[in-house]
Amino acid sequence: MGDYYNMWKNLDMDLEKHDQLCEILPEFYEEVYLSQQNRPDAMNYFNFVISEIHGLRVEELVNHKKQGGKIIGSFCVFVPDEITFAAGAIGIGLCAGSQFWVPDGERVLPRNICPLIKASIGAKLSATCPYYQACNMVVGETTCDGKKKAWEILKDYIPVHVMDLPQMKREKNKEAWIDEIYSYKSKVEELTGNIITSEKLKESIELVNKKRKVLKRLYNTRKFPQLPISGKDALLVTQIAFYDDPERFISKTEELCDELEKRIEEGVGVFPSGTPRLLVAGTPMAIPFWKLHHIIETSGGAVVCEETCTGTRYFENLVAENGEDLDSQIRNIADRYLKINCACFTPNHGRVDDILRLVQDYKVDGVVYFSLQFCHTYNIEYLKVEKALKQEGIPIIKIETDYSDQDTEQIKTRVEAFIEMIK
Ligand code: SF4
Ligand code: SF4
Residues of 170-207 as b/e, b for ≥16 C-beta within 10 angstroms? Predict the structure, then answer.
């Protein structure tokens, strides 16, 4: 990484603590990623992004701010990037996938809540995430109880706008969600000083759709018997999609897809044929949470798809591009986002249907149901998913864990036994 000391200083970061964070990542990345055999060449771009994780992209954000632009952080795939970009702001997903931030989160939050929430708050309190430090505002949502209440605490440290996400999908809930998108639009216009026109919104709808399409193309390459890319690498690409420059990300991922499609034609794969194909379903895996994929792929299995918010829930379904005015465009945006089947909805039959469909599409041999510790919604929803999969004769295992590596060996033993059973 280049010398960004002054930039970090100007972002009011805790430099000493940040050094500790920076020390961990390279060794960890080497072990999890660079040790893989036969990786696609186009993954070099994504290696580079990680090597510059707190450098180049942050510098771009800082330069955007110097030119009067604004940065908006978010924590959930329900926050509509289309609105953010249409106002000339840059939207970034704040990762919060590291154990490093959990103790700082626990300074102000109870210990028995989900690690994602603790890390989301801890990253700000510790002043060690330059993305967070660069944000003019962050957007929270009323998805689960833990998040809802955490925003009240976070408000003391950074401006927070909260979107009220309905928990049901009836017509009246959809109308309320449209109203929320309008409120977010007003908030972003106030922050940026830019009015969102129908033309600008059209451009950003097309841009975000393009990102979704390229991720879909990437995932399609994982449907083939000879897997051209590991699950770990595919997860990394999706994680990077949350904060990279969208145009550059699209073009680099297109390059990767070209290479993967060529590999498919030539029958080149990254795993021996017959490797059990696993779908990971459940809670999001924010960067640098690679624990479960690493365990699976070093235990004789391959992850072929993620039914998570750092997987299919992020890119499935496009916003219809036929909106002729602001109102119809915003309705189209609301429609698309309400198709996301997060466990915070009740009822949530759509998610079970999604999992059954993905099992077929990706020719899955077994499902690893992943729940972050203390995530009630995904934890409780396991029962319905298990029942539906058992009816179809699809093996399933539930893994509940946090960001620490204390239970790694225990999970590995269970995953190995599961893989052995479905072989
Ligand atoms: S799991 Fe639900 S609350 Fe969490 S990021 Fe996904 S959509 Fe948002
Ligand atoms: S993983 Fe579960 S508990 Fe954690 S933020 Fe997402 S929905 Fe809430």
Answer: eeeebeebbebbeebbebbbebbebebeeebbbebbeb
Side-chain-side CA neighbours of residue 46 (13 Å): 28
pLDDT over 80 at 2, yes or no: no
288 preceded by a cis bond (ω within 30 of 0): yes
Q: How far is Cα 286 from Cα 238, in angstroms, rounded to an integer? A: 10
Protein residue with its CA nearest to atom 4 in ligand 1: 76
Average pLDDT value for residue range 271-277: 96
User: What's the confidence (pLDDT) of residue 1?
Assistant: 66
Q: Which of 271, 364, 317 is nearest to 263 (CA)?
A: 271
Q: What is the pLDDT of residues 20-76, one digit of tens each?
A: 999 988 999 999 999 999 999 999 999 999 999 999 999 999 999 999 999 999 999
Name the region of 138 (left: φ>0; alpha: ψ -120 to 50; beta: rest).
beta
Considering only CA atoms, give the Rg of the chain. Answer: 21
Is ligand 2 within 6 A of the CB of residue 147? yes
- Residue 95 has a pLDDT of 74
Asked whether 116 and 372 are in contact (CB, 8 A), the reply is yes
Residue 149 structure tokens: 């209440």
The string of DSSP codes covering 268-318 is: --SS-TTPPEEEEEES---TT--HHHHHHHTTT-EEEEEESTTTHHHHSSP
Nearest CA to ligand 2 atom 8: 144
Rounded CA gap, 48 and 399, in Å? 31
Cα separation, 381 vs 49, in Å, equals 35
Instruction: Check pocket membership of 143 for ligand 2, CB cut-off 6 A.
Output: yes
Task: Please name the residue that has the structure tokens 């044929």.
Answer: 273
H or E stretch covering 365: none
Compute the distance from residue 292 Cα to the ligand 2 centre, in Å. 17
What pLDDT does residue 38 have? 95
Number of independent structural domains in the chain:
1
Quick check: is 156 in a domain?
yes
- DSSP letters for 381-419: HHHHHHHHHHHTT--EEEEEE-SSSTTHHHHHHHHHHHH
- Specify if 142 maps to a domain: yes
Given the DSSP bridges, would you call strands 90-93 and 302-307 parallel, antiparallel or unpaired? Answer: unpaired
Any domain includes 33: yes
Domain contains 146: yes
Q: Which domain holds residue 149?
A: 5-195
